[in-house]
Specification:
The protein has 197 residues and is α+β, with helices and mostly antiparallel strands. Helices cover 35% and strands 20% of the residues. The protein has helices spanning 3-9, 55-73, 105-118, 127-133, 162-171, 184-194; strands at 17-18, 22-26, 36-40, 76-82, 98-102, 122-125, 140-146, 149-153. Strand 7 and strand 8 form a beta hairpin.
Length: 197
């Protein structure tokens, strides 16, 4: 936890749930209340780099967290900007993190339409299929409404925080850059609602 968040929230450990190799945490500077990330305990820069022996664990863990978020907040989008080995980009954090973001289906469809206009997209596909078609050396963007209905673009040049900017635009949010450390109240409410899900 960043010191500023500890001081503001009184929360010292933001882990909502954990498995042997993955943890779920509320996003710092959440774009909306309920914004959660799933992060591997070991360093990789995209979910395509998860060890084969841990893919089933990851899929089960992610599905459970998605269900928890949807039970409390309703529809959610699933997204990741995976960064290939030795590459840079994404949101400025080169450690894999899958986002679960509560968002209305109508808005999610508008965002997917924008992604399709900006990039070459294929899908829908299950996340396990992305594991099989992607590789650890190429960057990609995934976006969808569930683990089995994701759309993917294997592009090397996806702008930093592309999805956050798009969600902010479609929901009339003024803040989207996680580095600005905004959304204290949403962070705390997300933690309080999901820590005992």
């Amino acid at each position: 936890m960043p010191n500023e968040y500890i001081k503001q929230s009184g929360i010292h450990n933001r882990v909502l749930d954990e498995s042997e190799n993955f943890i779920a945490i509320p996003s710092i500077s959440p774009i909306v209340e309920g914004h959660v990330m799933i992060i591997p305990r070991y360093h990789i820069s995209s979910m395509c780099q998860i060890k084969a022996t841990e893919k089933s664990e990851f899929l089960n863990f992610a599905q459970n967290m998605i269900h928890a978020v949807e039970r409390i907040y309703g529809d959610a989008a699933i997204t990741e900007h995976g960064i290939g080995n030795g590459k840079f980009g994404g949101c400025g954090v080169t450690h894999a993190h899958l986002h679960i973001i509560p968002i209305e289906k109508k808005i999610s469809c508008e965002i997917l339409k924008q992604i399709s206009e900006d990039f070459v997209v294929s899908g829908p596909i299950h996340l396990s299929g992305i594991f099989e078609t992607g590789d650890s050396n190429h960057s990609y963007l995934i976006y969808g409404e569930s683990l089995n209905k994701l759309y993917v673009s294997f592009q090397e040049s996806i702008p930093s925080q592309y999805i956050r900017k798009s969600i902010a635009h479609h929901t009339s949010k003024s803040s989207w850059d996680w580095r600005q450390m905004f959304g204290w109240d949403d962070f705390v409410r997300t933690y309080e609602k999901l820590v005992t899900y």
